[in-house]
Amino acid sequence: MPRIAYLGPQGTFTEQAARELTADFAAELIAHDTVHSALEAVRAGEVEAAGVPMENSVEGAVPSTLDGLVAGDPVVAVAELVLPIRFDVLVRPGTDPSEVTSVASHPHALAQVRGWLSRELPRAQDVPTASTATAAVEVENGTADAAVVAPVAHRYHSRLTRLASDIADVDDAVTRFLLVRRPGHLPEPTGADRTSIAVVAHDEVGALGEVLSELSLRGINLSRIESRPTKDRLGAYRFFLDFDGHVADTRIGDALTGLHRRCSEVRFLGSFPKADSKPVSVRASDSEQAFRRSMRWLSEVRRGRTA
Ligand SMILES: O=C(O)C(=O)C[C@]1(C(=O)O)C=C[C@@H](O)C=C1
User: Fold this and answer.
1) What does each C-alpha distance from 13 to 5, 67, 177, 283 come to in angstroms?
2) In principle, which of 38, 68, 150, 165 could form an S-S bond with 50, CB 3.0–4.6 Å?
């Protein structure tokens, strides 16, 4: 049975995502304390894949995932899932809300209930934890008074009681999760795919503009751009790009070879079906047929058969 690592312990949103992402086959889910450790288990071959949080509609990208994807041997995403996000708040039995002076959770979770916390637990200081479920453990251990958790967490921490249920400052908040593996297996193109890459542009005028032009010239829709320090020196950044299409599509392949020529580093981070399954629209001049026709024309020209 394939082993699948996830950001744990049990009761995280990522655990739910990992279950749904592996729903088609029997899998053994293995909790890891950090995203870094889950991705290292993939790289080391200890597990087949890892479920990791990627970005939240309120708080943005998960920096530990961006950094983990490019730190070490290549790994690629093979599937994505979007989950609605609402929280419960757990406390030790008998806790009076007015006595809560510390509230633990993943920084993304705390950010998504900031308004609720300032209204309901105004004295509480943040205690950032590696995941929402770790926060519940901290409350059990007495190192924090309250934990902002996924609603399923209570199942694993039934000694705690719910101070609040189903809270969220933004009603329709969602988080996107990825299933990440070692390279070697590319999902088939479906016509509704996303490709993810990370690039380091040369340090010269207009370099980022040229990176984006490689996509726009070929009618490729960019859905996300994010930067993270390369960690080599101040001012050096790596750009994480998501765009519509599959690496098997000619326009995507063409853009990637352009980027490979222009950038000091290009990491392919996967092509996989989009969670929304919305077919990618491609203008006629960038269709597979248009690329094939133009390649045929070029080879005729090169053979001296056409002017
Ligand atoms: O801590 C968890 O439960 C997670 O799965 C991580 C995470 C995140 O990284 O954003 C996932 C979804 C929520 O937005 C809050 C926390």
Assistant:
1) 13, 20, 9, 38
2) 38
